[in-house]
Amino acid sequence: MKDKLDKLKKAEHKLDKLKKAEHKLDKPKKAEHKLDKLKKAEHKLNKPKKAEHKLNKPKKEEYKLNEDKKNVYKFDKPKKDKHKQLGNQGFNQTSPQFLFNQYNVSYTVNVVGIFYNGETIEQATSRFQRDIEIANKIWTINGRSCIRFDITKVIAPGLLGNPDGTPRFAESINPLELQANTGIINQIIEFHKQEITNPNNTIFVVYFKGNAFSNGSIGTGGIQGNSIEFANGNVHGRVIMADRSIETPTNDPTRQFNTLAHEIGHVLFTRLEAGQFTINDPSPTAPYVNATNKPFDGSPRSHNNDIRNTMWPVALEVTNTPILPRIDEIQCTQARKSPLVIVQNLFMQ
After folding, report:
1. Phi and psi angles of residue 154, each rounded to the nearest 5 degrees, phi first
2. Which residue range forms the structural domain that includes residue 227?
3. What are phi and psi of 295, to 5 degrees?
4. Which of 15, 24, 43, 186 is most buried (CB neighbours < 10 A)?
5. CA 281 to chain centre
């Protein structure tokens, strides 16, 4: 009986050993466990890290920069002019280069009005503003400014007097004095230009009492200075105007002519060619062709053959007219080369 009991214990003992061996087989081996750990690490490496994800996202600063680039593009594009000026709408198609200059560069000329026609400063200022407004509307291409004329000063000393104290009228003044460096026009401008900060970028417009000058003209314009002064930019423009240039013979102040815009053209077209001054109109529709059905003109090369052009030799009334006289692109390009013109790059402002 005892032997059987010992055999049974030995059998139980073997069974326990078998169970322990089976238990060891069921447990994951350490090597397999380590392999699983490595696989998990590899899985983590394959996953995009949060930091990397943030780097791939556009930064707020970069987004703002892109928005700024959009703003630059908008700045480059021409804005619609809410106050589009009348004048040359629907005229010749404008070249891309000309449009580029329009949008990126400003061209201005200072103007000073000197009224020796007996008007008060209030009357003179109102009249000069009206003339300049008309000139600015005419000196456009497709509604955009070619050259802008800015009023610097208005002076109203009263009537021009003779040495004996009597008033001097336009009829006794020879417009050729405008080209001379002596005479009454030169004296007036030399006296008043001392009050002007930058006279070399200025057109002085002198108004006289009377219907017309001694040669029958109602206005004339040119440049003071010699060729050396002109080449160095040390010149100023001069225009003289009689009362009929701003009023009709009936002296109706509500009616307006294009005279100042026309005379400014003569000033800005003045240039040196082969060392000599010329004021010829550069337009392809110039010179003016005298004909039996056209008014006589003693200086056809400085005037235009197109009656719609502001350089047509006869003054045109522009009061309340829907179609103003115009300038063309060639005239604008030449005028911008004048040493009187102030050129400013808009991107530098």
Report:
1. -120, 130
2. 107-344
3. -65, 150
4. 186
5. 23
pTM, rounded to two decimals = 0.70
Contact in structure between 107 and 342 (CB atoms under 8 Å): yes
Tokens of 331: 């005239």
More confident residue, 287 or 165: 287
Burial class (CB in 10 A: 0-12, 13-18, 19+), 311: buried
d(CA 13, CA 316): 133
Instruction: Please enumerate in sequence order all residues whose Cβ is within 8 A of that of 247, keeping only pairs 6 or more positions apart, or say none.
Output: 253, 255
- Segment 126-149, tens digit of pLDDT: 999 999 999 999 999 988 999 999
Give the pLDDT of residue 92. 45
- 236 or 60: whose pLDDT is higher? 236
84 has pLDDT over 80:
no
Is residue 11 domain-resident? no
Evaluate whether residue 77 is within a structural domain: no
CATH, residue 172: 3.40.390.10
Q: What type of residue sits at position 169? A: F
Pairing of strands 219-224, 202-208: unpaired
Mean pLDDT of 28-38: 54
Q: Where are the beta strands (DSSP E) in 94-201?
A: 105-116, 140-141, 144-145, 148-155
Residue 33 in domain = no
